[in-house]
């Protein structure tokens, strides 16, 4: 069974902490056999989502089309002022274009959530915000979500193991495994 996983995250800064975390989670999904598609940094420089405007730029159409056919999703956001970055939130707003699909929004899809920040409060609050957004979009947050305090930890050891596990959980749940 072919599984596709779409990753959304990062910041406008190349090789940002949240982009590195997203890549680690997607590596776990890829290692579990998934085909991955990744939208980071420049891919997320989209106009503000406007539900009234039917015209979408090519990158927004590609993002929505990939999400439409995705079996699972991984979201990674930096913690800006204790919540999801505007860049990531705006990309997630484009999911509204899936509202009238047979599988609206992220209905029935496993979604791994990862947050990075320079402190625990922002990292945990951002992770909680991501999980709430996934619920609002009818997705299923994976049991494991990862909050990374980049002031204290790098992307190795237990942090890397947890990020890989998020990607594996997305694939496992997409396959219907408990």
Folded structure, characterized:
The protein has five helices and seven strands; from the N terminus they run E-H-E-H-E-E-H-E-H-E-E-H. It is an alpha/beta fold and 178 residues long. It has one domain: Rossmann fold (3-Layer(aba) Sandwich). Helix 4 links the parallel strand 5 and strand 6.
Assigned CATH architecture:
3-Layer(aba) Sandwich
CATH homologous superfamily name? Flavodoxin domain
Low-confidence residue ranges: none
Distance between the termini: 16 Å
Secondary structure category: alpha/beta
List keywords for this structure.
178 residues; alpha/beta; Rossmann fold; seven-stranded mixed beta sheet; 5 helices; 7 strands; globular
Please provide a brief summary of the model:
With 178 residues, the protein is α/β, with parallel strands linked by helices. It has 5 helices and 7 strands; from the N terminus they run βαβαββαβαββα. The protein is 39% helix and 21% strand.
Helices and strands in order:
Layout: E1 4-9, H1 17-31, E2 35-40, H2 58-69, E3 72-80, E4 83-84, H3 86-93, E5 110-117, H4 120-136, E6 140-141, E7 146-149, H5 157-174
Parallel strand pairs: 1-2, 1-3, 3-5, 5-6, 5-7
Antiparallel strand pairs: 3-4
Helix pairs in contact: 1-5
